[in-house]
Design brief:
The structure is a homotetramer. Chain A is α+β, with helices and mostly antiparallel strands. Chain A is built from 3 helices and 6 strands; from the N terminus they run H-H-E-E-H-E-E-E-E. In chain A, about 55% of the residues are buried. Strand 3 of chain A pairs antiparallel with strand 3 of chain B.
Chain lengths: ~130, ~130, ~130, ~130
């Protein structure tokens, strides 16, 4: 299972652009980690909300894919993100978890934690769809 | 008005990392454009949803800031994104518009259009908050 | 087309409980109207957000159903609502519109307007799914 | 604390219209229960999504109010609901919990459980705002 997720993660060039790496893959739960870089900031020097969203979205998508049948690919249908604290710190962990796994749609919740402070900086609820792998 | 938005945009190093540029700033409406790059892809080669979210979020945030009093900064409280089509193409335009401007909170709607096809690839609704500039 | 929507609307007993009525059914756009009643209030006497959500959700769902094949039923997958002004007034109009019609999923946007003031009191973005009619 | 929440709940006439009652009030967590009634249905006889939203929204709003200073009232800024299973059954429990309590804004998560089956039928993430009591 982890294998196809690791293969897909490598194809997400944007994860490499962000410096994000897959930290763990379990059935229904995926963790991605990310270090701070000056190239990823919003106007006050914190991580841009788009960076946070990108890694939590990938964590949620791969958590969903981990429970889908072989031959599936996963696409994000929609997500909602609450930004609860500035993404301040040197290292961040994004966790995505499946909360409802269906044949077509999977609902996930995810969060981003700033590891220096332990603060949750963002929460996501996402709907993912299983499609045939192209 | 455009001046403080242009100054803030330059501080968003992540916009430069994405290759995004501020295309227009009007009161209540901001446009950001972005070219495709192989470094911004998800697993099928389309723009990653995090890239789309980043530029539409910045467009919405600056649209909100454009109507806020001098000395304000803007932060994203939350947003919701529907991904309606793969972000396929060579060039993209993100538009953010204020739909309700309040003293504390501003509600914006935004979209990302793939300029080659004319397709809307994503819709955002966002809540922004005015804070004192740090 | 309007016929199956009118039949389904009548089965939504909650619409009758709210005193809501179907005002118009066009392909991709449905309007529901509602009068104020003291039985529908939140703590300050305005319409409860759940009332607003209910009628805009039904308007969006039926807008989606209006473009689905015969034999389909529609279910709400998820929605997001921004409450932009107190739902004050004597009469309200909810409009639901399809913004992206797919084979499985349909994306709609809706709003509730207070007819006395002309103010938009709420905006919704919703994802609807087509299922076989039970 | 429970006192002002119970007083406000009684003013929410819509809760009485739904037959909903306040089951418990703790700092940061409020539970509302609801029995099924034929008057609350969507087209297949399950609880309408607007009913579910109404009670989870009230549970989240009062959870937020429970941590706000005396003299505050609470309003919903926005919420997002994922409908994960048909709201089938005879009795339902809505729980609202504060996940981030701020001076102006409070972020809550809520859920509705069908008590017969134990199934979670809906998840909500909501942003609440503290205002001076009118």
């Amino acid at each position: 299972m982890g294998c196809r997720i690791r293969e897909s993660f490598v194809k997400q060039t944007f994860m490499a652009t962000l410096g994000a790496s897959l930290a763990s893959v379990e059935p229904g739960e995926v963790v991605i980690e990310l270090g701070y870089s000056e190239a990823l900031a919003q106007q006050n020097g914190f991580l841009h909300a788009g960076v946070t969203t990108a890694v939590v979205d990938s964590a949620c998508g791969y958590a969903a894919l981990s429970l889908m049948p072989e031959g599936s690919d996963v696409l994000s249908v929609e997500f909602k993100v609450n930004l609860m604290a500035p993404a301040a710190g040197s290292r961040f962990r994004a966790v995505g978890r499946v909360v409802k796994s269906g044949r077509t749609l999977t609902v996930c919740q995810g969060e981003m934690v700033a590891l220096d402070s332990g603060k949750t900086v963002a929460l996501m609820t996402a709907t993912m769809i299983a499609v045939a792998r192209p």
